[in-house]
Hints:
Blueprint (H helix, E strand, L loop, with lengths): L1 H7 L3 H34 L10 E3 H7 L5 H9 L1 E3 L11 E4 L3 H10 L1 H12 L19 H18 L1 H18 L4 H54 L3 H7 L1 H26 L1 H16 L4 H45 L1 H6 L3 H53 L5 H43 L20 E8 L9 E8 L4 E6 L5 H6 L9 E6 L2 E2 L5 H6 L1 E4 L8 E2 H5 L8 H10 L3 H5 L8 E2 L8 H15 L3 E5 L7 H14 L4 E5 L3 H4 L4 E6 L2 E6 L1 H7 L1 H10 L2 H5 L1 H8 L1
Parallel strand pairs: 6-13, 6-14, 9-12, 12-13
Antiparallel strand pairs: 1-3, 2-3, 4-5, 4-7, 7-8, 10-11, 14-15
Helix pairs in contact: 2-9, 2-12, 2-16, 6-8, 9-11, 11-13, 11-16, 12-16, 13-15, 13-16, 15-16, 20-22, 25-26
Amino acid sequence: MSKIFKNLIPYWRWIILIFVFLIAQAYCDLALPAYTSDIIDVGIQDHGIEHILPKEITSEDYQMAQTFMLSDEKEKFTDCYEAEDASKSDDGVAKYKLTADSDTLDKLDEELLVPLVMAYQAFQSGEQMDVDASAIPQGVALDDNMIKQIRSKVQEKIDAVGSATLKSMGVTFATKCDENAGIDVDANQVAYLWKAGAKMAAFAAIMLIAACVVGFAASKVGAAVGRDLREKTFSKVVGFSNAEINKFSTASLITRSTNDIQQVQMVAVMLLRMISYAPILGIGGVLKVVGTKTGMAWIIGLAVAVIMAVVLILVSVAMPKFKLMQKLVDRMNLVSREILTGLSVIRAFSREKFEEKRFDEANQNLMKTQLFTNRVMTFMMPGMMMIMNVLSVGIVWVGAHKIDAGTMQVGAMTAFITYAMMIVMSFLMLTMMSIMLPRAAVAADRIDEVIQTESSIHDAKEPEKVTTHNGVVKFSHVNFKYPGAEEDVLHDIDFTAEPGQTTAIIGSTGCGKSTLVNLIPRLYDVTDGSITLDGKDIRNITMSDLRDEIGFVPQKGVLFSGTIASNLRFGKDDATDEEIKKAAEIAQATEFIEAKDDKYESAIAQGGSNVSGGQKQRLAIARAIAKDPKIFIFDDSFSALDLKTDAALRKALAENVKDSTVIIVAQRISTILHAEQILVLDDGKIVGKGTHEELLKSCEVYRQIAKSQLSAKELGLEESEVALNE
Length: 726
């Protein structure tokens, strides 16, 4: 998780903006149930009247309302009203108009509730609390002691009624007084409902705007996180040496750069939209529930405890499977890549059934793991819905008893159910994310592993500048072994490759020829000894400067999607048309290029799949020639060429790169006959060094290779034949 959050830090400004709008969204979301409750309890049941003190009251009702009030209560009551001139009244009745503010009325709703309800009951029906107006002495003002005695007699009845019912009775008193004063109560009720509905619509609109802003900002941050991770991963992988590439494997690096980053990006968006919103909504819902004072908070607490227990059990079961799933995806990609790239070989050997079985095994293993995690998620959703439904039933059952007892109103129970659902939904959102987060955390760890891996080959802290460009390459007692290997692949390699000369390397398969030339561009670093370029240790030269001096043609020709021209300019972007045509001519590629309709603008498919092996090799050679480097390295780059094309290419190469150092790895003796220096490798050691003629006399290994490829007559008459041909 920490690695996911680490990637969000650069976008802290956007995250602050998201949190501000999430709080606004949650505030509006939490306000709506209260308005729903008010519409039911106040707007419908109480005719839109919010307080027990009437807005207008006749002088008769004014006096009656004070019947059971103590002296200080009467003072507070009278302070809230202002007498109106009867002559200005439409019906000529003396009235009092309410002038108190909302805060004062909220306080008086509790303080004056009992005396007002008693007065209403005494003078209207007298049934519910046994308050009989006829029992009150006529013409005698009740003092505080008498009022206290009367109120104490009915206190038990008041307590039995319940606060909610008592409040409704107080509102009924206010409604009756308003009607007596000539106020249109029905019109006020409609106005209240419109006002409450308008507020709810406004809050809903604010929620919509906030949700849109949060969605936009979260998507932007998520996309930016994905972009950054792809950039970091790709730049890191591009800088890896072959050792790091082999450590991770190409299939795994592709999975980490695509599937894993997509997982982190998706979770980053959901983290900002859902996981951040869930606790805000949940905490706000808890505060609202506590504020309702319904005494039912224990029901929600119990539901949350059950949810947390279910989540912990499911996550503990699913977490190991998520870790395994990423490895299985790697395996699936590896098998798919091997099969697709080797499809022609598979068909040639009739191995389709075997490879299908191998693919099916990897596919089945991945499917079983995914099915397990999906079943966990499938079980979780109905489980959570069951908890929510049981919670709703429990609230209704307990709430119904409270409504029957008069301690709760219907609207309050409705609001409580809504808040409870919000709290449970917030935990449900966290629960759903608890399934996705472990997988994303595993993906983030895998991505971070790539990003944190340092290449074993890097530039020196204080690199030397390349001042001379002669192209002299010198190996000084070089030893090399692959990372993790116990034995050296190359032993005491010592030679110098001079400009204007061709240095050829020959030997049996697996003797270390390609490994040797891979050390020059620092695809690997030497274990012991040193390699110098124009007298400078290549480890002290920046890799960009070093590789600028080299035109490298690998053993397997690699072309990139684009055109022939773009591939030939790969090493030199500003190469002119004449330069790339000249390079193609030297590489003996002109004939097949000119035969194409679009010539140098002809399309090259990914990997060069639309050209033959020989054409691909010639284009790879032309690409190196077009770069015009000081050092040419041909790693068995003529193997796909026929003998005629091979000879013509070498002749053209010798005529056009006279000032460059040429290093050729070859399997065929005919390719290296005229090299000024031939190195014979055997089991990683140089067992022979010299020209063709010298090695035939002095090196048994070279002699054996030559005899396997050339007849005795060809070996004995080679020089005379060459002279004759020339």
